Structures are given as C-alpha cells and as structure tokens.
Amino acid sequence: MASKRPNQLFRNMNAKVSAIPMIVTALFVFVGGTAWTIVYSFTKSGLLPRMKWIGLDQYERLWGTKRWLIAIENLAIYGLSMLILVFVIGFILAALIDQKIRFENTVRTVILYPYAMSFVVTGLVWQWILNPEFGVQNIMRGLGWESFTFDPLYNAEIAIFGVLIAGLWQGSGLVMVLMLAGLRGIDQEVWKASRVDGIPAWKTYIFIVIPMMRPVFITTLVLVVTGIVKVFDLIVAQTGGGPGIATEVPAKYVYDMMFRNNNLGQGFAASTMMLVTVAIIVVPWAILEFGGKKNNG
C-alpha cells in the first residue's frame, strides 16, 4: 500500500505542474483579496486604504445606518420570494418539458435564452416593460381599460417586486435546465412502478422524485442564493436603487460607499458582511456534500 502512494503522487505530473500557476493566482487574488478586505474593514480607510485601526466602529456604524438596514430588508424580501418562486417555476417548467413534448429543443432554448443576457440588458428591458408611459399600463389603457394601473417601479412600497419580476424572468431558465437534468436522471422504472401501483403523478413527484433529486436541489440552491446575495447589475440598470432607496441592496451599498462616498472602510465592512452571508450558505453545503461522501467512502 505504501509503495503505491508515491506512484499515485507522481501520476499526471505534467497536469499538476501546469495547474500550479492557476492555484497560486487563485490563492493570491481570491484568498489574499478576501483577507485584505476583512483586515481593512477594521480601519478608518477613506479615499485610500490606511492602516488606522478603529476596531468594530465600521460595523457599529454599518448596522446603525438606515440605508443598510433597508438594503438588508430588501434583500430578504427579494431573496425569499426569488428562492421560492424560481424553484416552483423552474421545476414546473422542467416537469412539463420532461413529458417529451414536441419542439422540446426550441422551447428549452426560448426559456433558457433570458439567462444568456446580461443583468444590465434584463434590467433595461423590464424597465421599459414596466414603464407606465409606454409599457404594460399604456398598452392595457390603449385597449380600453382606462383605470388599469401597473407601475411597480414607481411605487416605493412594491418597487422591489418589480425587480423580482425581472429576476424571475432571467433566472427561471437556469433552474429549469438543472431540474430537467435531474429529472432525466431518474430511472424510468420508478415511473412504471408508480403507474402500476396507481400512484398519482403529483404524489410521485413529491414523495419519490423530489427526494431522489436532493443533490440537484442543493446545488441549485447554492447557485441561486449566491446570485441573490450579490445582485447588483439588475438593480442599477432597472431602478438605480430608487425610488429613493426603496430598492437598495447590499451590493449597491458597497459600491456607493467605496466609489461614490470615498469611504473604503465602510464598504469593506459591508462587503465582509456579504461574504459572511455567502459563507453561511456555502460552507454547510460543502460539508454535507463532500464531507458526507468522504465519510461514506
């Protein structure tokens, strides 16, 4: 056994040596950059970074700022709504396409196409669609419904849901593809057995198919959640954070603090809190997925 380990160590040596620059770059850029950000979040950095320690003052100020609290509230509303609806819509679309429908490739491409667009384009498109002067509201009033009102982006109380519509339009296609891949991996004998036993299709999905797709759901969950936490382009393109700060999100708060208000310390503190949020999601997932497989092995 001991003699095999050196041989395994030197297998594919060319590939391992070639990967060293990439690994070093990743460690320097990502790990080093993350550590640098966390360290300077405890300093009084303004226009330029400076090593003047102030402890937790930046974090105390952060959590005492109304704008940051509203950003967190908006992220919670957008995130929970997005998480639930994108999973429901994506799974239903995948289940329908899995029925071997005609023109499946065309339908799948059309649904996935919005995901290929940038968030900036998506935001601008839905800004036009939801604009009361020439969007949905204008079209409906032109058809005779003079009292029809639909201007979510101009109503501070529901503006975040206008952003949610655009997010769902773009993200549902990705979830649909991932779910469809999971459904196509289910053994057809499962469906045959359920039909023989007279189990309704909806019960088969809920009690048999969905539990079997657990790895797909977890992977999709991580992808969606990390995308939610760092949502920025869509907000900037669609609402600019307005009306007022009604659609402010943490990523935009970080950008404004660092590049508009020249307050790097506050921006670093906010970005560190975003990193902590992502870590809370990703670390348990990594432990469950890879730690569990290692123990089972």
Automatic annotation (TrEMBL):
<feature type="transmembrane region" description="Helical">
    <location>
        <begin position="267"/>
        <end position="288"/>
    </location>
</feature>
<dbReference type="InterPro" id="IPR035906">
    <property type="entry name" value="MetI-like_sf"/>
</dbReference>
<feature type="domain" description="ABC transmembrane type-1">
    <location>
        <begin position="72"/>
        <end position="287"/>
    </location>
</feature>
<protein>
    <submittedName>
        <fullName>Sugar ABC transporter permease</fullName>
    </submittedName>
</protein>
<keyword id="KW-1003">Cell membrane</keyword>
<dbReference type="Pfam" id="PF00528">
    <property type="entry name" value="BPD_transp_1"/>
</dbReference>
<keyword id="KW-1133">Transmembrane helix</keyword>
<keyword id="KW-0813">Transport</keyword>
<dbReference type="InterPro" id="IPR000515">
    <property type="entry name" value="MetI-like"/>
</dbReference>
<feature type="transmembrane region" description="Helical">
    <location>
        <begin position="109"/>
        <end position="129"/>
    </location>
</feature>
<feature type="transmembrane region" description="Helical">
    <location>
        <begin position="204"/>
        <end position="229"/>
    </location>
</feature>
<feature type="transmembrane region" description="Helical">
    <location>
        <begin position="158"/>
        <end position="183"/>
    </location>
</feature>
<dbReference type="InterPro" id="IPR051393">
    <property type="entry name" value="ABC_transporter_permease"/>
</dbReference>
<comment type="similarity">
    <text>Belongs to the binding-protein-dependent transport system permease family.</text>
</comment>
<keyword id="KW-0472">Membrane</keyword>
<feature type="transmembrane region" description="Helical">
    <location>
        <begin position="75"/>
        <end position="97"/>
    </location>
</feature>
<keyword id="KW-0812">Transmembrane</keyword>
<feature type="transmembrane region" description="Helical">
    <location>
        <begin position="20"/>
        <end position="42"/>
    </location>
</feature>
